Amino acid sequence: METPTPKNPNLLLSNILVRLLSFGVLVILARLAYVITVKGRSCDSLDFCFFPQSLKSNVATSSTAAVAANISAASSARLKTYYSSIFLDLIAQGFLSLNSKSLCIGAVSGEETIALKEVGVFNSVGISLKKWSRPFIRFKNQTFGFVFSSTAGLDEASKPVEFALEVYRTVKHGGFFVVHTESANDAYSFASLLELFNSFTLIKSSEVDGFDSSSPLIHEIIFKKEKGVFRFNEKEQFLNGDSVSKCTVPSYKHELIKNAEPLIREEPLKPWITFKRNIKNVKYLPSMVDISFKNQYRYVAIGAKSYSLSIGSWFKKRYPKQDKSFEIYAIEANSTFHDEYRLRKGVTLLPYAAWIRNETLYFEINREASRKNGKRGRGAGRNQAVQSSSNFVSVFNKIQGFDLAMWLKSVVKERDYVVVKMDVEGTEFHLVRRLVETGAICLIDEMFLECHYNRWQRCCPEKRSPKYQNTYVQCLELFSSLRENGVLVHQWW
User: Fold this and answer.
1) Which Gene3D superfamilies does this entry report, sorted A to Z (predicted)?
2) pTM score, two decimals?
3) Which residues touch 271 (CB under 8 Å, ≥6 apart)?
């Protein structure tokens, strides 16, 4: 009979430790499963966490970045496919050759240029208006046989006239310029675009599909540079001359005026109430058309009076500007208001009286109104002919008048967008006639005109103001004549 071998105490202890360790691992795994499945979305101080919040955030950020990169890559690939189809169509139509030295004006990422090379136009370069402040400077005159501007080109140009000049300079004679734009959706903006490139010959204008189904239709306009044609400065030089000139009003301006608010035909008994009602009906030009493709944007307040009256409370707050920056001019002869304009940035003060020629005038100052109402008083009165009588000097201030029409023609170019507000206490009949005779009226895109007449007085029912001799019928004739001649003018009170 064998004697049983005694168990090794060390082996027994090892088995116990292994079992405890296995149990501990099971507990940890169970806890991990709970954290991941139930509470894995957050990690706070009351929970056991295998993954700190910072690590989870980094993982999430990395995942988001990876997804965004994939989306961006997919979008870029679709853009290249889209532009490849555009360029293949232009090749088929004969506007683009595989041997053309070509320029693409587009996005910073350059899908347009890549697509151009992928269809076989290897001698191609690309520029972005957002990346370079002067992108055309490195190119010599008549470098390219083909230039393409995507919606990231002309539509993003802060100075469209300079853009057009540079395109014209770099395109060879006989070369083509193709522009894609999401603007030019109306006759006004389309005409503005054609005016920008009037040294080119318009070949074709059509609509093509956008990048995807959610994108708007794109206007594709094709120009050709003909030899010996350059018109960029002709009209500016003509308008700056001193000779009397009349301008031709395009038909689309007459169509715009048909869509404006109707004129008030019957004389209002309470014009101060009528104005408050009518201002709500005014159809501003930028609410009807796209004002892109203009060179500069200008607002001229003639008889501005206080800053808040003509600029701060109205033009700055109410006039729809389509995110354009306007250069502002305030023409005001009354020195009562001059100090407040000197403190205003972005406003050029002309401390003179708008008139039909350069001469000294006597300027009526309504002092009672100024004392009673402070800076909100009427202030500016009618321009009077030069008088030598000392009696006049005690009632009228001696000021300098300047030729408004000739000033306007010296400052404004035909490709500028110009808004004029005129409140000149009765001299509007003289000024408008001068603007029409000189052709300067054609430089104005939109006018807000206050016509002064012997209106019914607020203080005294059935009694007319003796200050003005003109009648409401004469004012209505002035407004009607301007609109019939293609000027978008609004009645102001």
Assistant:
1) Vaccinia Virus protein VP39
2) 0.76
3) 455, 456, 493
